[in-house]
Amino acid sequence: MNYLVRRTVVRGLLINGGSGGRYISTVTAVGAVKPVEAWKELRNQNGASFGVFYWRRMMSSAAETAVAEKENKEKAVGKSAEKGVEYVKTSDGAVVSSYWGISRPKIVREDGTEWPWNCFMPWETYKSNTSIDLSKHHVPKTFLDKVAYRTVKLLRIPTDIFFQRRYGCRAMMLETVAAVPGMVGGMLLHLRSLRRFQQSGGWIKALLEEAENERMHLMTMVELVQPRWYERLLVLAVQGVFFNAYFVLYLLSPKLAHRITGYLEEEAIHSYTEFLKDIKDGKIENVPAPAIAIDYWRLPKDATLEDVITVIRADEAHHRDVNHFASDIHYQGKELREAPAPLGYH
């Protein structure tokens, strides 16, 4: 009788799991048999084979689950393949689906090596015109010109105090600001073109090219100078304030906005000239140029930091000309679309 009761208790524990308490309470009332004792008795009667059987049962269940999951994945991949989806593994192990038909073609340099950059392509690179006149200056004559000039000179004071002659960090901060005007101007011209159903005369693309070029300056400087945590916070604050202020200013007076940008570029030329002086004087080490700069500006393989700063300064001079030119168009009472945009002006 006790044997049958014990078998009933153990069977209830194994089969019904949590509901096994129902059998325990019944047995306790009849024979006061504890579950642990029942388990020991059954194991003693059946030997070690019972434990081995139960362990194998657990292992086989886990193996069956793993096999089922694998089969489900294979079925899903098979269904995707039937639909024309192909999975390609990249160099970093990521799986990219080509279901949408979007894939990067194999791009190589002139020497046959693989093109390493996704942020720009070989046909977007160029040789900078470093022979451009760096001494050009727009003399402020009108009231708005004087406001623009004084505003830029005022903004330079805290920059000089904070960075002093740390031109690497200064250039990094400068580029985070210099990349904003082109993006804001291009965005607002884009929206105006949509509202008025008018062409922009190429100025949307010209201003966005300027913003992209300034961003590439920043990507290059980040390779040379690692910003500190408080400098990153300063970038967030300055960019947030400057973007919104320039956005409102461009809505109110595009000619003033472009004039301010022109004077900002003049200050950038001055800063990079001082940067070059410190490099030539040995105050700043003339390290090898980053790979991204060599490919973007088509510099020689043995290019140095001096070469990089030289081409960046030339870019700033071109941006100076473009923005002063745009402001002059507005001063004549015309819209930018009425004058040809300086596309590809590097």
Q: How would you characterize the overall build of this protein?
A:
With 346 residues, the protein is mainly alpha-helical. The chain has a domain at 163-338: Ferritin. The chain has helices at residues 2-16, 21-30, 35-46, 49-82, 143-163, 167-196, 203-224, 229-252, 254-280, 291-296, 305-331, and strands at residues 87-89, 95-97. A two-stranded antiparallel ribbon has the order 1-2. Helix 5 runs parallel beside helix 9 (254-280), helix 6 runs parallel beside helix 8 (229-252) and helix 9 (254-280) packs antiparallel against helix 11. The longest helix is centred in the N-terminal third of the chain and has 34 residues, at 49-82. The radius of gyration is 36 Å and the shape is globular. The N and C termini lie far apart (100 Å).
Question: Summed up, what is this model?
Answer:
Keywords: Electron transport, Iron, Membrane, Metal-binding, Mitochondrion, Mitochondrion inner membrane, Oxidoreductase, Respiratory chain, Transit peptide, Transmembrane, Transmembrane helix, Transport. It is built from 11 helices and 2 strands.
Keywords:
globular, 346 residues, mainly alpha, 2 strands, 11 helices, Ferritin
Topology:
Elements: H1 2-16, H2 21-30, H3 35-46, H4 49-82, E1 87-89, E2 95-97, H5 143-163, H6 167-196, H7 203-224, H8 229-252, H9 254-280, H10 291-296, H11 305-331
Antiparallel strand pairs: 1-2
Helix pairs in contact: 1-2, 1-3, 5-9, 6-7, 6-8, 6-9, 7-11, 8-9, 9-11
